[in-house]
Fold this protein.
Amino acid sequence: MKNTKALAHIRQLCGLGVESHAVMPALMHALHDLIPSSNNLFVWTDAEGKVVERYCEVHLPAVIEATRQDLPGKTDVPALARSGAAVGNLRQRPSSFYRSPYYAEVYRPMRTRHSLDAVVRTARGTEGVLILHRDSDTAFSDEEAGELAAVLPYIRQLWTKPPSPASEVFNDTEGHGTLVCDSDGHIRHGSRNAAQLLAMAQRQGAMSCSGGSNQLPPELMGLLQRLLTLDTPGAHAGPPVLYVNNRWGRFVFRVSWLEGVGHGATPLVAIGITRQEPLAVSVVRGLQSSPLSPKQRDVALMLVTGRSAEDIVRELSISVTTYKDHLRKIYEKLGISKRVDLIHHLTQPTPAP
C-alpha cells in the first residue's frame, strides 16, 4: 500500500463506533488521499438492493436531481448491490453510456468520466455501494482497484463495530451554509452548501420538509417567529437557535436580521446552517494533519475520547512505559502540556466536505 498515512486515517475513521451516516462525509473526503478522484458517492441500500439514501460530495441542481432517475443510461445500483462483484463493476462502461442522456445531464455537469465502485457487504447482507468518480481521461487502474478492495474491511466496521459513547458529543465543522428569506419565510437566496445541508437535516424525519420549494419548513418558520418576537416590547422568546439531531450528526440553525441597503429596502433574514459531527470524527480529522506516528495517533484518539491509561495499555497491547513514552512524544510534537490542551488542539473546526 503506497499511502500508509491515508490508510491509517481511514482505519481510524471507520473504527470509531460512530453511525455510518455521520462518518460518511469525512470518509468520502479521506478517500481522495488514498485514490485520486474528483467526487465520491455512497448509496445505502436495503436487503433487496433498493436505494434507501445517498450522500454525494457534489450537490446536483434541483432540476437535475428531480429528473435523473428517469434518464436512460443511469447506473443500476440495485443490481450492483444484489449481485455485483466486490470491486470494479463500473470500470469498463460500454461506449453507449457516454452517449446516453444520463451521462450528458448528470455526469458531464459533474465533470465525471470514469468510475470505480465497491459493494459493501457484511454478515447482514449488502449495506451499500461506494462509487469514486474521476474527471480526467485517466481511468482507474488495477492497482487503485486493489487499494479500494484493501480498505473494504475497515469500511465494513461502520456497520459492525459497537456504538461509542463519544458519538453523542458534537463538534463544529466548517460545513456551513446560509439561506436568505423575507419575514414571511419565503426563501430568496441560498449559498452553495445551504440546500444540501437543509436536505440532510430533513432526513430520517428529524425535521419537516418545506411547505413548498421556496418556503421554510415549519421548524424554521418557528425560529423566524422567535426572531420577530424579540423585537416586540415586553415579549419573551427563546434565543433564535435550533438544534436538529439525526444520523448525519447535528445541525445548528441561527437566524439574524440583514441590514437593508437604500431607502425602503425590504428587511431580510439570514439563516446560518452549521453541520456538527461527532467529536471522535473531528479528532481523527485533526490527527490527519498532525506530525504524530500512527501509534501515537491511536493513543491521542483514545485519550481525547475519554479512555483511561489502563484502557489504552490493554487495548493497544503496550506496556505502561511505552504508553508514557507515547504520551511524552505527543505533547512534545504538538507543543502542549496536558490532556485538555490536546482536546482543544485536535477539535478546532476542520474543513468539512
In short: The first strand starts at residue 39 and ends at 45. The mean pLDDT is 85. The domain at 171-278 is CATH 3.30.450 (Beta-Lactamase). The CA atoms of residues 59 and 196 lie 6 Å apart.
